[in-house]
Design brief:
Number of domains: 1
Radius of gyration: 15 Å
CATH superfamily: Hotdog Thioesterase
Distance between the termini: 19 Å
Helix content: 25-40%
Low-confidence stretches: none
CATH topology: Thiol Ester Dehydrase, Chain A
Number of helices: 5
CATH architecture: Roll
Order of helices and strands: HHHEEHEEHEE
């Protein structure tokens, strides 16, 4: 089990644990903190965060900015990758292909998903991602491509 997944399981078992883990994970990369996300789920093949609709993530028309959504998608993917990547391997994002499908008018749930078959195709591992509004509208969808290779000694 990855140290991040182990930390997630230990911290989220505590009162206010999800909130605490979200803050800790938001500090892992400074740009994660900029979206004020809440980590909702972390397990093998699934990562999920929520980006609240607030002034700091809005664009000039008052919707959640597309790049803030992509930031949330990358955060969700990181949770998934940390929980799924075999301990003798390492992962690096090598690209993101996304489509903006609708205005993000509410808070967004950002979801990243894979299957065992996706990971069997390593070193190229596609992670399906989507951002969804509170009414179920998919506003952004696509894939983040990972490069999964053995760790160097």
């Amino acid at each position: 089990m990855s140290s991040t997944l182990d930390l997630y399981r230990r911290v989220t078992a505590l009162p206010q644990g999800k909130r605490l883990f979200s803050v800790l994970y938001g500090q892992k990369a400074p740009y994660f903190a900029s979206i004020h996300m809440s980590v909702e789920k972390m397990r093998p093949h699934l990562g999920q965060v929520v980006i609240p609709k607030r002034r700091s993530v809005k664009n000039h028309i008052g919707t959640v900015h597309a790049i803030a959504a992509c930031n949330g998608l990358e955060a969700a993917m990181g949770l998934l990758a940390e929980a799924t990547c075999p301990p003798d391997m390492r992962w690096l994002p090598k690209g993101m292909d996304v489509r903006y499908l609708a205005k993000s008018t509410t808070s967004l749930t950002c979801v990243a998903e894979t299957t065992e078959a996706d990971w069997a195709a390593a070193p190229d591992v596609p992670v399906r991602v989507k951002a969804v509004t509170t009414d179920g509208t998919v506003t952004v969808e696509g894939a983040i491509h990972l490069w999964v290779v053995p760790k160097r000694p």
